[in-house]
Amino acid sequence: MEKTPTNVPENVIDCPAADAGEQPVIQIENLCTQFGDVVVHENVNLTINQGEIVSLVGGSGSGKTVLLRQMLGLTHPASGTVRIFGEDINQISQQELQKLRNRWGMLFQHGALFSSLTVFDNVAQPMRELRVLPKELIREAALLKLHMAGIGPEHALKMPSDLSGGMIKRVALARALALEPELLFLDEPTAGLDPNASESFVDLIRTLRDEMRLTVVMVTHDLDTLFALSSRVAVLADKHIIAYCEPAHVVEFKHPFIETFFRGERGLRAIEAMPDAQDSESESKEEKRPEIQPQHRQDNAP
Ligand SMILES: Nc1ncnc2c1ncn2[C@@H]1O[C@H](COP(=O)(O)OP(=O)(O)OP(=O)(O)O)[C@@H](O)[C@H]1O
Predict the structure, then answer these.
(1) CA 58 to ligand 1 center in whole angstroms
(2) CATH number corresponding to 13-103+181-285
(3) Strand blocks (E) in 108-201
(4) Angstrom distance (rounded) from CA 219 to CA 61
(5) How far is the CA of 164 from the centre of ligand 1 (A)?
(6) Considering only CA atoms, which residue is closest to atom 6 of ligand 1?
(7) Which is it for the CA torsion 291, 292, 293, 297, positive or negative?
(8) CA distance linking residue 135 with residue 115, whole number of Å
(9) Which pTM value belongs to this model?
(10) Using a 6 Å cutoff on CB, does residue 247 contact ligand 1?
(11) Where exactly are the structural domains of the chain?
């Protein structure tokens, strides 16, 4: 028997987007999720606007992965709506859903590359599946996406097993960008990376957001990444979004999860390292960022 959802707690904080004039890309309304007797989400509401980078955080089992899967149309909520680009993804046909899927990219936690395909083929495959692009264009576009993700053509014929963890993430990102998405989902994008690789991945995501006007939704436990990138942070706890604000405001909210997650030693260190405090330092990192050149062409490639 389904439990009747209770109302959202009154003491939530919900701040408007910094640029509230932007179009909403994701609109989740009154979403409820239940598995058997276990209620995971009760009346969850979340709007993500174009160009935002929103981090979804919450304790283990709070329902982050399920919510992400619901945004991807892989899992259906018990009730409520999930609109992506204005379409209710639980009401449209599989064909329409597939068209929408071509407008977003997903980076899975473990890269999710095909181990039997080369780096190049991993990135080219989503384009080949469209069955409309000529071979030469696919070749150029795949190499461009690899270049954007900081992977040179000398790696194109390598197998995933020959790559470092950081390179696998970059190739997976190139693959997620293959169809020029407007929206990017990232599941623990920096998990397993060393601090340098994480930092350069963060720079890359920021650059892509700025250059491609991407909207980004990420699930992360990495506070450095969260503070460096997020325009807003959505905190899932007690079956609700209890806070949805800029990182600096979310940390002020009194809730046991927030206090444990953000105000521990690591959290305080990450707050101190937030971009505002580091503007001059981040400029000195400029040369580390891969340049994005839309017409770039590699002649030595496969
Ligand atoms: N297919 C399923 N069938 C039954 N229960 C499920 C299913 N998928 C998820 N759950 C339950 O839903 C709850 C939320 O799971 P979810 O994986 O979204 O948590 P999470 O916040 O991503 O946790 P973590 O940070 O540990 O990955 C958990 O109690 C989980 O056991």
Answers:
(1) 12
(2) 3.40.50.300
(3) 183-187
(4) 13
(5) 29
(6) 35
(7) positive
(8) 22
(9) 0.82
(10) no
(11) 13-103+181-285
Q: Is the Cβ–Cβ distance between 134 and 181 less than 8 Å?
A: no
8-state DSSP, 224: H
- In degrees and rounded to multiples of 5, residue 286 shows phi and psi of -50, -40
Looking from the CA of residue 67, the nearest atom of ligand 1 is: 18
Lookup: tokens for 130:
């469209």
Ligand 1 centroid–CA 294 distance in Å is: 40
Residue 85: Cβ within 10 Å count: 18
pLDDT band at 212 (very low <50, low <70, confident <90, very high): confident
* Phi, psi angles (nearest 5°) of residue 54: -110, 125
- Per residue in 162-209, pLDDT tens? 998 888 988 998 999 899 899 999 998 888 888 888 888 898 889 888
Q: What are the tens digits of pLDDT across the range 94-119?
A: 999 999 999 999 988 776 799 999 99
For residues 250 and 49, what is the distance between their CA atoms, to the nearest angstrom? 18
